[in-house]
Amino acid sequence: MKNYIDIGINLTNRQFQNDTDTIIQNALDNEVVQMILTGTSVQGSKTAATIAKEYPSTLFSTAGIHPHDAKSFNNQSISELRKLVQLPHVVAVGECGLDFDRDFSPRDQQEKCYRAQLALAIEVQKPLFLHERAAFTRFMGVTKDYLPQLPKAVVHCFTGTLQEAKTYLDNGFYLGFTGAISDTKRFAHLQEVVKYVPLDKIMIETDAPFMLPKNVPKTSLTKYHERRNEPAFLPYVAQTVASFKGISLEEVALATTENGKGFFEI
Ligand SMILES: [Zn+2]
């Protein structure tokens, strides 16, 4: 029996509406024993915390504002998040960061929202769940201002270059890998990245319902949700890590679970 921890699922996404119990049960049936629900807005973080509380020691959540949602950031946002991160089952601040790929929020607003959450993580000393897409230089520039006091941090759904991965590692960050690593057409360079990153710095996640791993057999996808990812598919991410690194699936499960437990203190 292997045990996996999915460090990032978007269970409050409308693609999972009314399916929560089934999704959790499917995950448990596939040896995914703990899951961390990603908070992407104040409201979403509240909902995630409420769901997590119903599954003690199995589900946990984060509280934060995604850069896409930075436009909703206001004077009350941080005090709302502060209340949430003080709950024992809310284990990290985030997801937060910068996303210059889609630019769903103005960049100056993204930066303001990100800085406020970095300061919050320092204040409450809880780990950070970070999101960076097409914004590496500015992201590091902003983050550097806080580095000396910064708690542990994971850059989730890493799809950047080897050089970017090296910079994150040099700063003590963990990297979270999703099914994107199995997309050898779009993200061929990630094979080299996964090979390079030490096993004790890797965590795995589905980022469900997004990022469906390419190696999930078609027969495992339900008729009505053929493109929907779910935490039950996390072992496919582990499988890709194992094959890129030339090690056993057991080793990947053991290491990533130990990393997740230590990082989130769960
Ligand atoms: Zn993200």
From TrEMBL:
EC numbers: 3.1.-.-
Position of the signal peptide: none
InterPro entries: DNase_TatD-rel_CS (IPR018228), Metal_Hydrolase (IPR032466), TatD-like (IPR001130), TatD-type_Hydrolase (IPR050891)
Enzyme superclass (EC): hydrolase
GO MF term set: hydrolase activity
The UniProt record lists the keyword Ribosomal protein: no
PROSITE patterns for this protein: TATD_3
Taxonomy, superkingdom: Bacteria
Assigned keywords, A-Z: Hydrolase, Metal-binding, Nuclease
Keyword Protein biosynthesis: no
Pfam families for the chain: TatD_DNase
SUPFAM superfamilies: Metallo-dependent hydrolases
Name the record gives this protein: TatD family hydrolase
Lineage: Bacteria, Pseudomonadati, Bacteroidota, Flavobacteriia, Flavobacteriales
